[in-house]
Structures are given as C-alpha cells and as structure tokens.
Amino acid sequence: MTAWLLLVAAILSEVTATLSLRGALDVPALYVLVVAGYVLAFTLLGQVLRRGMSLGVAYGIWGAAGVVLAAAGSALLFGEVLTVLKVTGFVLVAAGVSVVEIGSQRAQQAADGAAASPVAATGAVHAGGEEAR
C-alpha cells in the first residue's frame, strides 16, 4: 500500500475510535472498538512514516482530517450542531494543512535539486557565489 492510502486508513481508524468513544458512553461494549481503532490508527501511522512521509505532513493531515471527520460524524450520529463558525474553522484548518503540504513538497524539490547539483555535492562555491573551476 502507498503511504497515502495507509494515511487514509489511519485517519479513518482514528475517527472510528473517536466516534466509538462517544458512543461507548451509552454502550460500554464499544470501548473494545475504541482501543482497537486507536491501536490500528497508530500502527498505520507508523507504516506511513516508514514509507517516507514526513511526520509533520502526516500528523498535520491526520489531525486536520480527524477533526473535520469527527465533527461531521458527531453531527450525523449524535445530532451535535455544526455552526457557521465551526465550519469556517474546518475550512481554515484544511487551508493550513494544504499550505504545509505545498511547503513540504517545495522543500523536497529544492533538496532534490541541490543534491543533483555538482556544486552542492562538492560544496565548491567561491565567496562571491560563483562555482569553483
């Protein structure tokens, strides 16, 4: 599985566990699902990191998606109210995660470009910024 699919599975496991935690208040047997969901979520997150996704990106996406999905699930399953202010917050969180992801991609591209450059590989640059010959 790719890191992205594993991350989606981790997010869904965490949201399932979180929603089950709310449900377990009325049905204590759901605590089994809570524990299983969190164990699976963290196991999957470990696999995401093992496949090379940075912790900042993975955790940022997990956190943001988890908040939005848990709130939406709570509204659907438990009748919790989604106000305009809450939805605005969700949009801002999603925008923030997008900015982090774009920044991460650009940093990786810059690092890849620097690693491919002979100047970067040798470190041979004069103080004036010109390549050594």
Automatic annotation (TrEMBL):
Keywords: Cell membrane, Membrane, Transmembrane, Transmembrane helix, Transport. The chain crosses the membrane at residues 27-45, 57-78, 84-103. It comes from the Bacteria. It is a multi-pass membrane protein. The keyword Lyase does not apply. It is found in: Cell membrane. GO terms for cellular component: plasma membrane. GO terms for biological process: glycine betaine transport. GO terms for molecular function: amino-acid betaine transmembrane transporter activity; antiporter activity; choline transmembrane transporter activity. PANTHER family: MULTIDRUG TRANSPORTER EMRE, SMR FAMILY PROTON-DEPENDENT DRUG EFFLUX TRANSPORTER SUGE. Belongs to the drug/metabolite transporter (DMT) superfamily. Small multidrug resistance (SMR) (TC 2.A.7.1) family. This is QacE family quaternary ammonium compound efflux SMR transporter.
